[in-house]
Design goal:
By secondary structure, this protein is mainly beta. Strands 2-10-9-4-5-6 form a 6-stranded mixed β-sheet, with no helix packed on it. A hairpin with an 8-residue loop joins strand 9 and strand 10. The radius of gyration is 13 Å and the shape is globular.
Length: 111
């Protein structure tokens, strides 16, 4: 059974950084396309970053230059490095391989 587990969320001040991790169980993440989404209260879920099977990346305009997605094959994980965080980045962040979704991790950016 495939499971994805997100971690690394928390409370951070504006301008701060967080590193989210999406760890896969029952799936070899080395060859998977993985997408990070987020959903803020009262808003629709939106794509944040995508890592393709060939390790190409794509980002939402709102996070370009601040977020970076990468693969950690040793840990069977895909990471989302988030820098220069803003209050608008507050949301629950989810990862998916297109079939399976994690339960999400809360990111709160507030002073």
């Amino acid at each position: 059974q495939v499971r994805l587990v997100e971690s690394g969320g928390g409370l951070v001040q504006p301008g701060g950084s967080l590193r989210l991790s999406c760890k896969a169980y029952g799936l070899r993440f080395s060859y998977a396309a993985v997408t990070w989404y987020r959903q803020a209260p009262g808003k629709q879920r939106e794509m944040v970053a995508t890592l393709t099977t060939s390790d190409n990346t794509d980002y939402a305009n709102s996070v370009k230059g601040r977020f970076s997605v990468s693969r950690d094959n040793a840990k069977n994980s895909v990471n989302l490095q988030m820098d220069s965080l803003k209050p608008d980045d507050t949301a629950v962040y989810y990862c998916t391989d297109g079939t399976t979704w994690g339960l999400g991790t809360q990111v709160t950016v507030s002073s």
